[in-house]
User: What shape does this take?
Amino acid sequence: MNFLSTALLSITVLFSVPDKKNNKEPYREDYRPQYHFTPEKNWMNDPNGLVYYDGEYHLFYQHNPKGNEWGYMHWGHAISTDLMHWENYPIALYPDDNSEDKVNCTAYSGSAIVDEKNLLGKQKGDTKTLVAFYTSQNCGQRMAYSTDKGRNWKKYENNPIIPLDEKDDARDPKVIWHEPTQKWVMVLYRKSNDSDNSKGVSFYTSDNLTDWEWKSHIHGFFECPDLVKFKVENRPEETVWALFDGDGTYLFGNFDGAEFTPISGKMKSDWGKNFYATQTWSNIPASDGRTIQIAWMRGGEYPEMPFNGQMTFPSELSVRHFPSGYKLIRKPIAEITSIQKNILDIEDKNVIPGINDNKVKKASGDCLRIVGEFDLKTSDNFGFLVRNSTKKPGTEILYNVKRGTLSVMGVTVPLLPIGTKIKLDILLDRTSIEVYANDGQTVVSNCFTADPKSNGLVLFSNGGELGIDKLDVYEIKSVWEKKD
Ligand code: FRU
Assistant: This one.
């Protein structure tokens, strides 16, 4: 071997040493969430077309197949049987009219349903037709359908189903079945006149999925509406409707199939910085009966990653009546228990400030679920540091007892104790922290980018003693395991 080839060999060896700084293995990258949905590569924003059919949950999403920035919207597609392990499928919807434009006639957000009664007349055999409603940006509201359980999609031949009105900026149709009136209802973000003050949600109805009649408009909404009927958990005879805005805020009200009458002010379903474009799954069987929601974690950062965008962990939504009125409750879906492994279990212990006794020292990691019930005792404030190391302090989740507030990454929200107790259910993934407090009454979802080498967990109390009634820490297994 001459000098040149020896030198070349050593250069090759040098460069083939695995990149410790940033793991490049697909689905193992440093900033790749391990149990939150991300596209394999390129840009993703809103969840679209969420529909359950024949044992499968479909997740479509706003997707730019050309790169890591927004634009050229298509509907990406993934399928799961448990809402956690996703199988990627080919792109479902392409821009219309062979558009190569970044915006015009691209496939913006929308929803999907099962055509139970074969209203479109497209059904093949016993397999029901899946129907997607989407905005073809600047080209009207449109429809597409699949006769093979979502594998292949065709555009409806008489599109658009609601023609473009250049002044109303309409988009993001969400279609639901309204049992009492036996009609399909579409909620659509739009302006009802030229003025920006008229931004809101219009309600349309249809008997056949193709002809839509405008019924009413409600102001004060912007993008990605959703309309959901809830049974009130602690008042079994009562039901109430919730109308969601794109940022997850919601109003309770009555809905007669044509008009929504609010009975509450607007409330927040998430206080974090990264929660947007919520949508619930349609067609979940009555035997299951859950309302399951997912949202885009808008604004997350994924340095040097092949993808850009992640979804929240799916939440189960319910409504409870409190002395102050109805309230939305959000909890991580129960399926999470099948990917978690208990690594720490503490009961009836005290955290005493000032002594070096981190009770959760053994539970390090970048994918954790931390479920605790704490007795405030004499503590002034307490909390966790996640992804901590001696070199770099971790990210703090802090409950301030005196103020009655929870703070995570610069977001501070009111949180009153239940008696003297605070409950926290924290989902930590590589680029997100979702804190569900007091049994899902208050939720804060944030994205973050931690130092890849810092995996420590710290529990602290300041000012006085904190009681741990119960604390379980679970390691969450990667849902991409089977890719190995
Ligand atoms: C919300 C949104 C929608 C639109 C889509 C385009 O994030 O602006 O209103 O349909 O994104 O990607």
